[in-house]
Amino acid sequence: QVQLVESGGGLVQPGGRLRLSCTASGSIFSIYTMGWYRQAPGKQRELVAAISSSGSMDYARSVKGRFIISRDNAKNTVYLQMNSLKPEDTAVYYCMLNQPGRDYWGQGTQVTVSS
């Protein structure tokens, strides 16, 4: 089993920044992908950004150039630096870890962008 613990959400004004963190523990293989998804009210969960164990990154078009994903393999931790936040970034953000054969999810952290 794998456990994911997220932190860093909150309320921020448009144009502001937040940094999300997610630390994994448990039965973690050496090769895995970590990422962030988000789900706004009434919408489907969508990929925000993901990073493989080799460092390959993927971003949603809507956040490219504003968000930066990174990871610390020694700490089994993934970060999401969110800059120039917009009201449409408001959502519950979920951490995800993918190992061969299974996805694991965090409990979610609320990000609200509002003046």
Span between termini: 40 Å
Q: In this structure, how is the largest beta sheet organized?
A: 7 strands, mixed
Order of helices and strands: EEEEEEEEEEE
Shape: globular
Number of helices: 0
Helical/strand content category = mainly beta
Low-confidence stretches: none
Number of strands: 11
Helical fraction: under 10%
Estimate the strand proportion.
over 45%
Average pLDDT level: 95
Mind telling me the C-alpha Rg? Answer: 13 Å
Oligomeric state of the chains present here: single chain
Give a brief description.
The protein is mainly β. Helix content is 0%, strand content 56%.
Write the layout of secondary structure elements.
Blueprint lengths: L1 E6 L2 E3 L5 E9 L6 E7 L6 E6 L5 E3 L7 E6 L4 E6 L8 E9 L2 E4 L3 E5 L2
Parallel strand pairs: 2-11
Antiparallel strand pairs: 1-3, 3-8, 4-5, 4-9, 5-6, 7-8, 9-10, 9-11
Can you put this structure into words, describing what you see?
- The chain is mainly β.
- Helices cover 0% and strands 56% of the residues.
- The strands form two sheets. Strands 2, 4, 5, 6, 9, 10 and 11 form a seven-stranded mixed beta sheet that branches. A four-stranded antiparallel beta sheet has the order 1-3-8-7, with no helix packed on it.
- It starts with a strand and ends with a strand.
- The model has no long low-confidence stretch (mean pLDDT 95).
